[in-house]
């Protein structure tokens, strides 16, 4: 959540909402404004204890943006997953030879790589 968004008062009990609104003279503050109030001050406020304060602080922390993978990283990841999948196929083939392997897999007949003597 960006810090300039309104503080989500609806996530708290009526007592906590009133305490926060009183702190800001009846108006809904932004996440940034709530984050700027020191912990000691909040803990001295009626209806706000350590559990509520933790919840308030968690809301004020921005989650890091997901990292975008480059094309090269995606291709390396795809290659790794393909090798891992092939290893799983080989294990299944060794453990369950012939028709029994196909009957255990959800789409046995549609996975031709599991049929025959490929390794």
Using brief descriptors, characterize the structure shown.
119 residues, mainly alpha, 52% helix
Give a verbal description of the structure.
The chain is 52% helix and 0% strand. The chain is an all-alpha fold. The chain has two domains: 9-60; 71-114, no CATH class.
Write the layout of secondary structure elements.
Blueprint: H1 14-23, H2 31-35, H3 39-43, H4 50-60, H5 71-95, H6 99-104
Give the total of beta strands: 0
- Strand portion: under 5%
Please provide the ordered H/E string of secondary-structure elements: HHHHHH
Global shape: elongated
Biggest sheet layout: none
pLDDT averaged residue by residue: 80
Quaternary state of the chains = single chain
Quickly give the structural class: mainly alpha
Distance between the termini: 50 Å
Give a concise summary:
The protein is mostly helical. The chain contains six helices and no strands.
């Amino acid at each position: 959540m960006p810090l300039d968004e309104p503080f989500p008062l609806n996530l708290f009990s009526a007592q906590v909402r009133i305490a926060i609104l009183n702190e800001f003279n009846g108006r809904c503050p932004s996440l940034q404004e709530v984050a700027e109030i020191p912990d000691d001050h909040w803990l001295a406020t009626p209806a706000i204890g350590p559990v509520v304060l933790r919840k308030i602080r968690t809301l004020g922390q921005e989650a890091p943006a997901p990292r975008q993978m480059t094309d090269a990283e995606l291709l390396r990841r795809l290659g790794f997953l393909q090798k891992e999948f092939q290893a799983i196929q080989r294990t299944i083939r060794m453990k369950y030879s012939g028709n029994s392997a196909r009957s255990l897999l959800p789409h046995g007949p549609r996975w031709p790589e599991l049929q025959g003597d490929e390794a």
